[in-house]
Amino acid sequence: MSSGQEVGEIFGDGSGPAMSLLRSPTVIIAAVGLWGMNVYLFKLFKIDYVHVLTLDLIKEKEASARKGGDNKEDDNSDLCSVGSTGSIPGPTMTNRNTKGSKRRANSPGDSNNHVNSADSEVTAGKLIIFSLSLLLLLHMSTVTWIDFIGGSAIGAIFIFYLAVIVGILLPLPSTAWIRTACMTIFHRTFELINPRCFCLGSGIPRAIPFIDVFFADACCSLSKVFFDWGMLWHLAWHYPEPVPMELHSIIIPSVAASLPYFIRARQCLVMYTIGAMKADAKKYQHMLNAIKYSTSLWPLVVSAYQKTITNEKEKAALEAFLIVLLAINSTYSLAWDIIMDWGMMQNTCAGGSNGGLTKSHSSCAHSVLRPKLRFGAPTSIGILFIDIVLRYSWVLRFWETDLFPNADIYILCTQFLEAIRRSLWNLLRVEWEHIKQNKGKEEDADDDVEMMEQKAFLAPKSRSMSPSFQHKQRS
């Protein structure tokens, strides 16, 4: 969720400020590179994030198969594409799915129709190189179009997007992984607007898979990117005239910025409906989550309206109201991050079972964090501290005129900070989901270890018996 939901400047010169137009592609490029960092750390700490993301899809597909295959929403091809967009050593799907896909891909008759799995695999190195290439392309396209051709910033941005699309569509083996990832993104985007709670035919609601929750949360962090896209089309539509200071001119980009929050809130309401049907005692958590996303919409509304008024006194009053709304949203979201999304602060200092990853609860701080920390206590504390700081990065608005040349650069800075915060949030969110998915398996493993320890404790006693005593026992 964005740390500051203020909208950018849209009214002014018809050519548009170059910084405003460069914001969206720059932030997207940064997000791609930061996801590469996530992939590297997941691999380093042996967290199979692909399996974590796709496990709900696999279970849904298997449940559909047992019921007769009525669910056609997520077919095997999508599961395979999701699994290939970032596979790391270890099982990413069920053996049945992976082996079946390998047999299909390696069959002699289909050798020309399938891309080498190594080419389709997404790795941290590929993501980082791709982001650097996009950054270079953005620089070259803007310099060439503006400085050499004499075109506008709007034309330079459209040329950049066009070059990226053409480059991805070219059937090159080296870009096969990008096309696979894009197809997966398009499919998951469709699932975000798919009315899962009103399925045609059966009418049975279907739970939102974790991958769609994760994807929608990522879109919330790119809320300002959606606003910039709406602003770009407005500037292009009125070019070379300035955008008129009318209400609809700011409403359309603001609605685009609010779409991720509406989608995520709707997902929560769908899960609340499912919880009510199943009489789930914790269904209220989904309603609280939906309310959290609604607190992100009010700053957008107030900020958008603030751009349309000229009365300085009214602007000052709205500014104070906007600060209150931002404080409520940041505090609510921070508490939800720590407690619900990361599973922290759910233990006591009294001790208890720790799942086998931590031997004691001697440290109260360790208990407050979480008994299972795949990234370790120092790293988890560091991520927690940075998230707290970045959640309140909107306080930079108090020094906006001192630190930033204009409001657009301030918005760009908050976008970068939000992209960094989201990349750190991803680490603990996927880690916590991984722990929850493997909770039963780890508990079984702990029981096995305990039985082995008991046998090891009893074995020396039997061996320490004297031969005469053992003879008496046998007789």
Features:
69% helix, 20 helices, 475 residues, globular, mainly alpha
In short:
This protein is mostly helical and 475 residues long. 69% of the residues lie in helices and 0% in strands. The radius of gyration is 26 Å and the shape is globular.
Describe it for me?
It is found in: Membrane. Pfam families: EXS (PF03124). Keywords: Membrane, Transmembrane, Transmembrane helix. This is ERD1 family protein. This protein is mainly alpha-helical. The protein has one domain. Helices cover 69% and strands 0% of the residues. Helix 9 runs antiparallel to helix 11, helix 11 packs antiparallel against helix 13 and helix 16 runs antiparallel to helix 18. The protein is globular, with a radius of gyration of 26 Å. The N and C termini lie far apart (75 Å). The relative contact order is 0.12. The N terminus is likely disordered.
Present the secondary structure layout.
Elements: H1 18-44, H2 49-66, H3 76-84, H4 95-106, H5 117-120, H6 124-148, H7 153-169, H8 176-193, H9 210-221, H10 223-238, H11 247-277, H12 284-294, H13 297-306, H14 312-341, H15 364-369, H16 377-391, H17 400-403, H18 407-437, H19 439-464, H20 467-474
Helix pairs in contact: 1-6, 1-7, 1-10, 1-18, 2-3, 3-8, 6-7, 8-9, 9-11, 10-11, 11-12, 11-13, 13-14, 14-16, 16-18
